[in-house]
Amino acid sequence: MSRVLITFIAFVLVLPGIPAGAHHGYGEYDESREVSFSGPLLELAAIQPHSFFTVSVTGADGKATTWSVDLPNQALDSFPLKPGDRVTVTGSGATDPKATKALLRKITRLSDGWSWERPTRSR
Question: pTM for this one?
Fold first, then answer.
């Protein structure tokens, strides 16, 4: 049997035993960099490893940008939101300051003041 085939078989046998949780973290966000924006919800997506939603944000130049917001370990069905709802989002910005994504800290629906805030993490 060739060395490459033996290595491949060993890899396939060992891979299922490696914990998959390592890539489910939030290392792409900088907790010290707060971002805040408002606009209408475009999409809500409940997918693994975590849910997210998108918001259309109009800048001072009148140009719309789509922001993606990750929900930290929160079931999307607990959010009484729908596309079109105008919201204000506060979150941790991406480590890349040019990226239009955030990790949710707080969301407020502007029509009625409903809000949700992420519990503070202990360090």
Answer: 0.74
